[in-house]
Amino acid sequence: MRDSILTRIRATTKGDSMARMNEYSAIPRLYRQRGELDSTQRVALFMERLIDYDAAVYRCSEKEISETVAQALRARAKTGLVIPSALPKAWLPTAFEFIHDENFTYEQLDQSEGVMTACAGAIALTGTLILEHTPASGRRALTLIPDYHLCVCFEHQVVETVAEAMALLSTSKGRPITTISGPSATADIEMTRVKGVHGPRFLDVILVAAAEA
Amino acid sequence: MSVRVGQAAQAPSYPDAAKDAVMNPQLRRNVKHATTVIRNKRARVVGEMPDWQQLRDAAQLIKEHTLRYLEEYLLQFEKACTLAGGTVHWARDADEANQIVADIVRSHGASEVIKVKTMTTDEIQLNPALEAAGISPIETDLADLIVQLGEDKPSHIVVPALHRNKAEIREIFLKKMKLNELGDTAEALTAAARTYLREKFLRVKLAISGANFVIAETGAVCVVESEGNGRMCVSLPEVLVSVVGIEKVIPTLRDLEVFLQLLPRSATGERMNPYNSLWTGVTPGDGPQEFHVVLLDNGRTQILADEASRETLDCIRCGACLNACPVYRQTGGHAYGSIYAGPIGAILTPQLQSMEHSQSLPYASSLCGACYEVCPVKINIPEILIHLRGKLVEGGQAPLSERAGMKAAAWALSDSRNLGIAQIFARIAQKPFEKDGVLRNLPGILAGWSSVRDLPAIPDESFREWWKKRERR
Amino acid sequence: MLISLFITCYNDTLFPDTGKAVVTVLERLGHTVEFRAEQTCCGQMHYNTGYQKEAVPMMQHFLKIFRSAETICIPSASCVAMIREYYPLLAERTGDRAVMKQVQDILPRIFEFSELLVKKLGLTDVGAYYPHAVTLHSSCHSLRSLQVGDGPARLLKSVRGLTVAELEQSDQCCGFGGTFSVKNPDVSAAMVADKSRCILNTGAEVCTALDNSCLMQIGGSLSRQRAGVRTLHLAEILASTESGDRG
Q1: In terms of CA atoms, which chain A residue is nearest residue B294?
Q2: Are A36 and A160 in contact (CB under 8 A)?
Q3: I need a surface site. Which of A112, A192, B431, C231 has the fewest CB within 10 A?
Q4: Distance between CA atoms of B119 and B5, rounded to whole angstroms?
Q5: What is each CA distance from B252 to A20, B377, C101, in whole angstroms?
Q6: SS in 3 state form for chain A?
Q7: Which of B388, B407, B453 to mutate to test the interface with C (most CBs of C within 10 A)?
Q8: Beta bridge partners of A18
Q9: What would the mean pLDDT of A32-61 be, rounded to a whole number?
Q10: A166: which chain B residues are within 8 Å (Cβ-Cβ)?
Q11: Of A162, A119, C162, nearest to B270 (Cα)?
């Protein structure tokens, strides 16, 4: 089956490694590779997109992360969250209960109040959060099943364009990646956009300012 | 080889199916509304992009390059995916693909599988094959769920249930989900679907998906979606099988930067769709620990062999051509008799089947070019339609009366004297049908025209006759 | 300027008045029009329907007749699109380098009628008078293949006494598509129904376009409906003056 298909393909196409690589690198890419916004504009655009998605956005400095987390949790009336194993302890306010995801069952995740993670990057133009499923973001189920996701994103992690983001991801070494651009949605019923189908229906983002040198 | 595109081989011709569709006001209204909404959204977000044309150019070049070296890229993907713990299978046709999938499911003793949207499995008719093997496939895309519970067929690439309105969907859910009560808003219906499906996402151990792109360099697989059921299906079960057409491969991860900009804006008119999932083989402690990819031919190598229409395989299934097509918007997708409908369907469906079936589809177009204008990978659909018409004529598929008529016309148009004679003849022949300068009730193939339109009578003097007289003066 | 007219087979047979109007306008502007009587057809109908082989001799006939013409005027956007987009492919099909060169040589000398006026002669006011409300249908070939842009609209706006009524969804295909209207009569009828609804909504008396093929489709539908709106090729509007009102 495999050989038969490959034989058919071979009959119609080229197949010389060197030529292939040369041809590939010669493909002109005249689309925008770099953004033009400065960091303040970039962050402002990103926030605008997040707010458009009905995400609550908080801004703070690195020292203030844990108290901002507390603020977000109070606003959502949460008593605690599930967290991935490598989330920095300094981010966790003491008045709330944080439990490490130690192979919870899906039912247990479904009953949790929510999850908090870091992120691998963000795209301002499209309002996208990028999760690379490392110990700082946890396994994919962790950010999928709970209904509330609190994501900590540093301002320096925000790039302007999709192209810049893909350049970052090229170093992810085979780990799963999930991009999140707003809550899940469908327009399948008479083209009426309904938000929150599967996946977390509530998303909060804490934008952390770059530390002054 | 049994290449199959759904049930296209048994479907009625487009003109026959269109007759009914055109007379269905609910359908026409739904189709016009849906296509207009997406078309307007698309126009807005595309208008924001100063480099839209450059993105299209790059996408076309990347796809065409990939097809020229398809063998190498597929082998590269196979190697990388296998190294990362995945298993790669190759299926020559629909039956082989279905066999592979059914065997995997059976080997786990599973009687249920959850599925995330994939037209490819519709193409090969996977669901009936699974059911025949005692396995229940559960569609998890809201529209596919509506279609499945409604025992119906999808009618659009991106919005498969656009032919259904809220009231119909409510009826279907009440009955099939065994609910006692159910609101009638889109929100209430969506919430019902969420509850119904959530139980399955958390419990079912086997999932089947397609893929929007597979990356040769890293062996990664990418699923682009809006609802979250994709994420559920590819990261919660223990076993995942992805059925992927061989044309879905792209060279590197970087190339996604082009396609992830073109696809969401073209398909749903968004700057970015809610969720993209990218995974490579198997990751310990995260998601399915057994992952299979079934690389599918099912007629694609046939298209690859035709250089004039090979770009058909560049398609990234965005559906923009359907939304732009003035023919599609009059009938919706069912009339095309294939999971692949609209302009792309008109060229893909017959070609996958080596032009043996769906022969009316290349003619289901007025060649207006709206599709080519919006195609993110710049497939010249009108040019390919004409090429396929040529293939059908050369293959002797044209009806005898048409061949005779075209031959007569070719004679008339071959030189000016013949043309003059033909014009005189036509003026005489029209007499029985002419009244007050207008022709009505024409016979034969012109009857269709005549049933809804008048035709101007052929004037007594042609331009060239007038000019000749003028010259003499 | 000496301008060679390619009338097109269907204008010659069904719409000779369009040809006469083209001659009138060009002569009014001080140019000389010639008509090479051996001309027949560009081959579009055969080519588009899948009879590409039969279109080859028609192309060769066209190339032979117009080889020496400096400027060729064609009052049909679809025929110009055929020549511009598909003659190169058809020529490649013959494998004959001489034919391929002939096609490349002739392409820069081909103009659709409105292109000739606006792009080549740089004119939008051709001294016309037509005191009616007119709406413009943008034929698919003129819009997408020729990309005439707002040329025809500007020509219309410069006609004295004429009121332009903007057409909604003017870029939607009228549903003719040549043999499409014969092979898919129901969908073609549905498409022209939408088009005629938009036209009637404008309140215009006349619908115009660059292609009589579209106007035949639209006019045929309007006439069957006894809608009281007629169709007229742009050339005939531009030919109209106070003295020779074609209304």
Answers
A1: A2
A2: yes
A3: B431
A4: 10
A5: 13, 17, 40
A6: CHHHHHHHHHHHCCCCHHHHHHHHHCCCCCCCCCCCCCHHHHHHHHHHHHHHCCCEEEEECHHHHHHHHHHHHHHCCCCEEEECCCCCHHHCCCCCEEEECCCCCHHHHHHCCCEEECCCEEECCCCEEEEECCCCCCCHHHHCCCCEEEEEEEHHHEECCHHHHHHHHCCCCCCCEEEECCCCEECCCCCCCEECCCCCCEEEEEEECCCCC
A7: B453
A8: none
A9: 94
A10: 253-254, 256-257, 260
A11: A162
Longest CA–CA separation in chain A, Å: 68
Which amino acid, one-letter code, is at B103? D
Domains, chain C: 2-120 (no CATH), 133-239 (3.40.50)
Q: Between B57, B90, B286, which is nearest A5 by CB?
A: B90
Q: Hey, which residues 52-81 in chain A have their CB within 8 Å of chain B?
A: none
* Whether CATH 3.40.50.1970 fits B71-301: no
Q: How far apart are CA C201 and CA C168, in angstroms?
A: 9
C-alpha to C-alpha distance for C22 and B381, rounded to whole angstroms:
33
DSSP summary character for residue C86: I
Residues A143 and A150: their CA atoms lie apart, in Å, by 9
Could you tell me the residue ranges of all domains in chain B? 71-301, 401-472
- Compute, in degrees rounded to 10, the torsion defined by CA atoms B143, B135, B128, B191: -10
Instruction: Return d(Cα B122, Cα B139) in angstroms, integer.
Output: 11
Q: Are B336 and B361 in contact (CB under 8 A)?
A: yes
A18 in contact with B, Cβ within 8 Å: no
Which has the closest alpha carbon to C108: C117, C100, C118, C120? C120
Between CA C138 and CA C80 the distance in angstroms is: 15
Question: In a 3-state reduction of DSSP, which class is residue B142?
Answer: helix
Q: What is the dihedral of CA C175, C176, C182, C186, to 10 degrees?
A: 20
B390 touches C50 (CB < 8 A):
yes
Q: Do C14 and B426 touch (CB under 8 A)?
A: no
d(C-alpha B378, C-alpha B367), whole Å? 15
Task: DSSP for B197-218, please give it.
Answer: HHHHHHH--EEEE--SEEETTT
Assess contact for C206 and C231: CB atoms under 8 A: yes
Is the separation of the CB atoms in B75 and A45 below 8 Å? no
Q: Summarize pLDDT for B238-274 with one digit per residue, the tens.
A: 999 999 999 999 999 999 999 999 999 999 999 999 9
Q: Report how far Cα B273 is from the mean position of its chain's Cα atoms.
A: 20
> For B432-449, what is the mean pLDDT?
80
What kind and span of H or E run contains C53?
helix C52-66
Residue C127 backbone dihedrals phi, psi, to 5 degrees: 75, 30
ipTM: 0.95
* Across A156-162, average pLDDT: 96
Query: How far, in Å, CA of C150 to CA of C155, rounded?
Result: 9
Residue C39 structure tokens: 């001309």
C166: helix, strand or coil: coil
For range B343-358, the mean pLDDT = 96
Query: Any CB–CB contact under 8 A between B303 and chain A?
Result: no
How many C-beta atoms lie closer than 10 Å to residue C37's C-beta? 13
pLDDT digits 0-9 by tens, B63-78:
999 999 999 999 999 9
CB pairs under 8 A between A and B: 238
According to DSSP, the residues that pair with B126 across neighbouring strands are none
The string of pLDDT tens digits covering residues A73-84 is 999 999 999 999
Distance (Å, whole) CA C133 – CA C119: 26
Residue B224: both structure tokens together: 């682009």
Round to whole Å and give the CA distance between A181 and A130: 9
Q: How deeply is B234 buried, as exposed, middle or buried, from its count of CB atoms within 10 A (0-12, 13-18, 19+)?
A: buried
Q: How distant is the Cα of C138 from the closest Cα of chain B, in angstroms?
A: 11
Q: Which of A20, A18, A27, A15 is nearest to B61 (CA)?
A: A27
Neighbours of B289 (CB within 10 A): 14
